[in-house]
Amino acid sequence: MLDLYDLIRNIQKRPAMYLGQPSISHLRTFLAGYFFARHQLGEPETGQEKHFANFQTWIQAKFKVTSSQSWDKIILFFSQDEHKALEQFFELFDEFSTTNQNGATPTIAQTVHSTTRKG
After folding, report:
1. Residue 55 half-sphere exposure toward CB, CA atoms < 13 A
2. DSSP secondary-structure letter at 53?
3. Do the Cβ atoms of 15 and 29 come closer than 8 Å?
4. 59-96, pLDDT tens digit by residue?
5. How many CA atoms lie within 13 A of 94 on its CB side?
6. Nearest 5°: CA angle at 35, between 80 and 94?
7. Calpha distance 69→111 (Å, rounded)
8. How many CA atoms does the CB half-sphere of 26 hold within 13 Å?
9. What is d(CA 47, CA 49) in angstroms, rounded to the nearest whole number?
10. Tens of pLDDT along 15-58?
């Protein structure tokens, strides 16, 4: 089974296959289903899942948002539409995933797909 971050990178390569249509809301729903299924199966939380739990707080700090809106809604608010928000998620996720919980660069090198920000 793929780990969480590999799964997210696979979704980035073929979003329609996983999400039906390229949409940040669909991604949020997909990931909620992923976490729910793992919980229902009694699977222990992985290190990546624990790290991703900080994504919400990281997004709020990145966009200087103090409201209780979810990460997908925050990204969508600052994007043109659902599709552009999904593209922006992957850019932000690449930045987030290259830092550990203390903000330091991880010791294990990761392949990061970088795109230039449009807008």
Report:
1. 25
2. T
3. no
4. 999 999 998 899 999 999 999 999 999 999 999 999 99
5. 15
6. 45
7. 30
8. 17
9. 5
10. 999 999 999 999 999 999 999 999 999 999 999 999 999 999 99
Strands (E) in the chain, as ranges, are none
Paired tokens of 118:
């449009």
The residue type of 74 is I
Q: How many whole angstroms separate alpha carbon 58 and alpha carbon 83?
A: 21
Amino acid at 53: A
DSSP class of residue 100 equals -
At 112 the three-state DSSP class reads coil
| Separation of CA 44 from chain center | 20
